[in-house]
Amino acid sequence: MLLVPLAAAALTAAAQDPPKAKKLYCWNDPDSGRTCSDALPPDRVNSARDEFSVNSGARVGAVDAAMTAEQRADAAAAAIQARADQAAADTRKRTEQAMLLSYASEDDLKRVFTERSTLVDNSVDTARYNVASMRAALITKLQQAGDAELSGRQVDAKLAQDIGQRHAELVRQQRLLNSFEQQRAQLSSEVQDTLQRYRTLKGAAQPPG
């Protein structure tokens, strides 16, 4: 007995639902130019298009073209980079607040950098000494080889091997020296930037006079 009223109610509700407004779809076709149709072809489902009301002709919406796999990968990479940039900004803000709390004065902050600078300077000095020593030793071995050749004697195999090893070690020490010198230059720049930032933060944190 309940089926009849329920069926009648369903028919009444369906009759009250307004019909969906018809749309006109317009897209750019590479061959035929601007194309419009009241039915969207299956091969244009993923294409960019504008949608208009058939009754009023008013533009009622737009759909962007579906992204390619490469575009999706680029978008994902951009989202990851944006999150990383935001995390870096948050970290910097927390670091700046910690810096204000940790160092009561500029001299306290300078002392920290002085310790780091001393360590890097020691590394630079040691590398310079090693380069000079290895260069002098290599020159001595090369002179021995040169004397042998000028005397018409064949350069000893052990001497030639020693020259090769010392040359390789000299190159390695030179690379270390260059690395330490770059660290020193970067540290000097970091010191100036940090001190300038500290002064700015300290000034902003001071109550107005």
TrEMBL record:
Record's keyword annotation contains Coiled coil: yes
Keywords: Coiled coil
Coiled coil location: 170-197
Domain of life: Bacteria
Annotated protein name in UniProt: DUF4124 domain-containing protein
